[in-house]
Amino acid sequence: MSDSVLVTGATGNTGAHVVAGLRERSHRARAASRHPDSADADAVAFDWSDDATFAPALTGVRAVYVVAPAGAADPVPRVRPFLETAAARGVRRVVLLSSSAVARGEPGLGEIHDLVTDLFAEPTVLRPSWFMQNFVGDHPLAETIRRAREIVTATGDGRLGFIDAADIAATAVEALTATEPVGGDLVLTGPESLSYPEAAAIVSEVLGRPVRHVDVSTAELARRLTAAGYSAEFSSMLAALDERIRTGEQDLVTTTVRDITGRTPTSLRHFLAGHASRLASSP
Ligand SMILES: NC(=O)c1ccc[n+]([C@@H]2O[C@H](COP(=O)([O-])OP(=O)(O)OC[C@H]3O[C@@H](n4cnc5c(N)ncnc54)[C@H](OP(=O)(O)O)[C@@H]3O)[C@@H](O)[C@H]2O)c1
Question: Where is the NmrA-like domain (predicted)?
Answer without folding.
Answer: 2-243
